[in-house]
Amino acid sequence: MSNASKPDYIAYNVVEGSDDKKIWNRVGAAWTHGDGDGINIVLDSLPLSGKISLRVPKSDDDK
Question: Which pLDDT score, from 0 to 100, does residue 25 have?
């Protein structure tokens, strides 16, 4: 599935790393429906922990 518009959210799997630092792995993106009543999520991979965090993209994520 391909979407030409920039995503409204980036999907991350956040895991504990060494020294209690969190590691943010990008696993996909999400787009809000035109009517505002839902979100389409496209995942490139599935997190083993089952937890996904959606964040508003920053300019560095758009590159």
Answer: 94
pTM for this prediction: 0.78
- Contact between residue 9 and residue 61 where contact means Cβ atoms under 8 Å apart: no
Distance of CA 20 to CAs 15, 16, 24, 50, 55, Å? Answer: 10, 6, 13, 20, 21
* Cα separation, 21 vs 32, whole angstroms: 30
Burial of residue 14 (number of CB atoms within 10 Å: 0-12, 13-18, 19+): middle
CA pair distance 29, 26, nearest whole angstrom: 8
The residues, any chain, with a CB within 8 Å of residue 31's CB and separated by 6 or more, are 3, 5, 7, 8, 9, 39, 40, 42
